[in-house]
């Protein structure tokens, strides 16, 4: 076993050298037509791929390879390790440091938080190669992907997950009613921080979205009650299908909301896949490998969705206001989630915190596209990264606290009686 582990490490170290270097070499074909900043982002994505191994040494080697190969292939004079331009030298240094930092974070997170690593990589990729993603967005990509994601999640949720919810039924109903009333108003108020109309509409739709699909897994990682989280996920999703159109029409958003087409779109993209997945799962018993495959499909589609949605982000000063609004919305929804879980058992309180504070960016994107057009979905890729990052941070903190509380106290030194004195 030790020998196999050693060979795997050697293999990942070799990949750390080869993958960024081969990426830099392949990108020579677009040198001069694609900005060096985009090329640097693509090479950084190669570092993230290596970092998913969980080996920090391989990630560090990949960062060094990225910096050297960027210098060799993409700075003047080409095919030389010398750098003639001061700005290129600074860019190469920044790339190396950025790749090192991102790689170490990704390697640390990859074992239990692979979703965060993949979502971060997708966000980087969306800025480096946005055109293919924009093509898919223009051809119903933001309708198909959420439908597949909702169906896969419903299929991967066993019926046993909903048993034992009776004691918390009152809190569940209160939580779903509270979020349906409070969060749309909060997102509407905070959206006015954003001056650009299309971006403002995107911020508005976050408050209309149901609980984030990833919040169930995040709740489990944090030591929360996944049954409560699954119940809120299903209930809030169906509630969104029923009420989002009416709420959006009441809140406005600066445009004419056609209620029937919006409800039809939500029913087809969210409601029907959710009901179909639950119905199939109640009739079929999936093996552990089949459940794992459905979960992997969900992670893959979430990654694809971040790439699609974030491809519409055109970074500018307007995104400063968008970021502030989204962070304030996250803080407000977290406060609401903590209040809903007040005096509840710790696992239940954790479930309320995460499902309330993490809203589903994919469904929000579907609402934005159906109501306002693809441009309004642009802030939701950024929100997806923020929300999933927040959930993973909570899960890491809660799980580390749980492990430390379960660890046995250190023994007193020999010769000392703890009862003495």
Question: Top keywords for this entry?
Answer:
421 residues; mainly alpha
Write a short abstract of this structure.
This protein is mainly alpha-helical and 421 residues long. The protein has helices spanning 2-26, 36-51, 56-74, 86-109, 114-128, 130-138, 141-156, 169-191, 197-206, 214-221, 226-251, 259-283, 288-310, 318-340, 346-357, 361-372, 378-406.
Walkthrough of the structure:
- There is one protein chain.
- The protein has 421 residues and is mostly helical.
- It has helices at residues 2-26, 36-51, 56-74, 86-109, 114-128, 130-138, 141-156, 169-191, 197-206, 214-221, 226-251, 259-283, 288-310, 318-340, 346-357, 361-372, 378-406.
- The chain is globular.
- The protein starts with a helix and ends in a 15-residue tail after the last helix.
- The relative contact order is 0.12.
- Residues 410-421 have low confidence and may be disordered.
List the helices and strands and how they pair.
Blueprint lengths: L1 H25 L9 H16 L4 H19 L11 H24 L4 H15 L1 H9 L2 H16 L12 H23 L5 H10 L7 H8 L4 H26 L7 H25 L4 H23 L7 H23 L5 H12 L3 H12 L5 H29 L15
Helix pairs in contact: 1-2, 1-3, 2-3, 2-4, 2-5, 3-4, 5-13, 5-17, 6-13, 7-12, 7-13, 7-16, 8-9, 8-11, 8-14, 9-16, 9-17, 10-11, 10-15, 10-17, 11-12, 11-15, 12-16, 13-17, 14-15, 14-17, 16-17
Global geometry:
globular
Portion in beta strands: under 5%
**Helical residue percent band:** over 70%
Largest sheet: none
User: Taking all residues together, what is the mean pLDDT?
Assistant: 81
**How many β-strand stretches?**
0
Rg over CA atoms, rounded to whole Å, is 23 Å
- Secondary-structure element sequence? HHHHHHHHHHHHHHHHH
Number of helices: 17
Low-confidence stretches: 410-421
Instruction: Report the end-to-end length measured between terminal Cα atoms.
Output: 50 Å
Structural class, by secondary structure, is mainly alpha
């Amino acid at each position: 076993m030790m020998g196999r582990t050693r060979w795997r490490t050697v293999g990942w170290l070799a990949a750390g050298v080869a993958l960024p270097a081969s990426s830099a070499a392949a990108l020579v074909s677009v040198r001069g037509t694609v900005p060096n900043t985009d090329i640097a982002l693509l090479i950084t994505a190669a570092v993230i791929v290596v970092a998913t191994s969980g080996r920090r040494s391989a990630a560090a080697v990949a960062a060094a390879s990225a910096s050297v190969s960027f210098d060799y292939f993409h700075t003047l004079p080409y095919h030389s390790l010398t750098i003639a331009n001061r700005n290129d030298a600074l860019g190469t240094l920044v790339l190396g440091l950025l790749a090192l930092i991102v790689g170490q974070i990704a390697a640390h997170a990859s074992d239990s938080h692979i979703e965060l690593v993949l979502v971060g990589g997708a966000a980087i990729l969306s800025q480096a190669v946005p055109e293919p993603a924009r093509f898919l967005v223009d051809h119903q990509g933001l309708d198909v992907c959420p439908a597949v994601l909702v169906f896969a999640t419903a299929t991967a949720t066993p019926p046993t997950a909903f048993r034992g919810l009776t004691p918390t039924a009152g809190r569940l109903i209160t939580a779903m009613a509270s979020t349906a009333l409070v969060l749309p108003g909060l997102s509407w108020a905070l959206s006015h921080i954003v001056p650009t109309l299309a971006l403002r509409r995107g911020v508005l739709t976050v408050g209309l979205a149901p609980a984030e699909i990833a919040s169930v897994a995040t709740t489990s990682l944090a030591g929360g009650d996944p049954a409560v989280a699954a119940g809120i996920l299903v209930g809030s999703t169906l509630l969104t299908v029923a009420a989002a159109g009416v709420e959006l029409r009441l809140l406005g958003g600066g445009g004419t909301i056609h209620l029937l087409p919006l409800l039809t779109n939500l029913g087809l993209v969210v409601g029907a896949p959710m009901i179909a997945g639950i119905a199939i799962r109640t009739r079929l018993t999936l093996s552990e490998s089949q459940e794992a495959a459905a979960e992997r499909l969900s992670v893959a589609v979430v990654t694809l969705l971040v790439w699609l949605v974030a491809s519409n982000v055109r970074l500018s000063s307007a995104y400063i206001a968008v970021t502030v609004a989204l962070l304030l919305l996250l803080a407000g929804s977290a406060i609401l989630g903590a209040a809903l879980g007040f005096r509840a058992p710790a696992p239940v309180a954790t479930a309320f915190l995460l499902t309330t504070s993490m809203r589903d960016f994919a469904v929000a994107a579907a609402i934005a596209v159906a109501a306002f057009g693809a441009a309004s979905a642009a802030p939701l890729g950024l929100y997806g990264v923020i929300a999933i990052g927040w959930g993973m941070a909570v899960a890491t903190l809660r799980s580390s606290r749980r492990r430390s509380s379960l660890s046995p106290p250190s023994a007193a030194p020999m010769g000392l009686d703890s009862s003495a004195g």
